[in-house]
Amino acid sequence: MQEQPRILGLDIGDRRIGLAISGPFGTPFAMTAQPLLTLVRSSLRHDLKSIGRVLRKHSIVEIVAGNPLYMSGDLSPQAQKAQAFAEAVRAEFHLPLHLWDERLTTTEAHRQLDTLGHEKLGRKSIIDQVAAVLILQAFLDHRRLAASEPPSEPSKSL
User: Which of 67, 126, 139, 156 sits at 20 to 30 Å (Cα–Cα) from 14?
Assistant: First the structure.
């Protein structure tokens, strides 16, 4: 049975990529993000192959990648790397890919794990997934709010 389409969230790091997935479109869970897995990076070719398997398995139709800007909003070296990887993903799979401001996402992910009482040791395996969930959920919330706003009045032509 073919899965319903979904959106994939990526938290792109130098060593790992956290993945999160939206609920299936057309269900009450379509606007929620859940952790999926953490990829350990090896090479661009291998990373893209792993992401391709996820895209096919989960019927992904759109991707949101974290964009780690400086607090000032300027492009950081890590943002340049994340954008380059995101562009490689877009070029390889020809899916819509959105860069999403992820400032303080990892800090918030640690805070949430602290609140849940998760031990600090062993977080490497899940922290990137939690960050990916935060990125994807922010994107989904923004999209939901934008869709619920009343349309602006069309401009009048003279």
Answer: 139
Least confident range of 32-41, 60-69, 104-113: 104-113
Helices (DSSP H) in 40-123: which residue ranges? Answer: 44-57, 77-93, 105-115
CA–CA separation, 115 vs 108, rounded Å?
Answer: 10
pTM: 0.83
Distances (CA, A) of 33 to 1, 19, 134: 22, 10, 8
Q: What are phi and psi of 52, to 5 degrees?
A: -60, -40
Read off the tokens for 51: 């992401």
Cβ density class 22-38: b for 16+ within 10 Å, e for less: bbebeeeebbbbbbbbb
Backbone angles phi, psi at 103, to 5 degrees: -55, 130
Q: How far is CA 69 from CA 5, 18, 57, 95, 144, in A?
A: 29, 17, 31, 23, 24
C-alpha closest to that of 89 among 46, 36, 48:
48
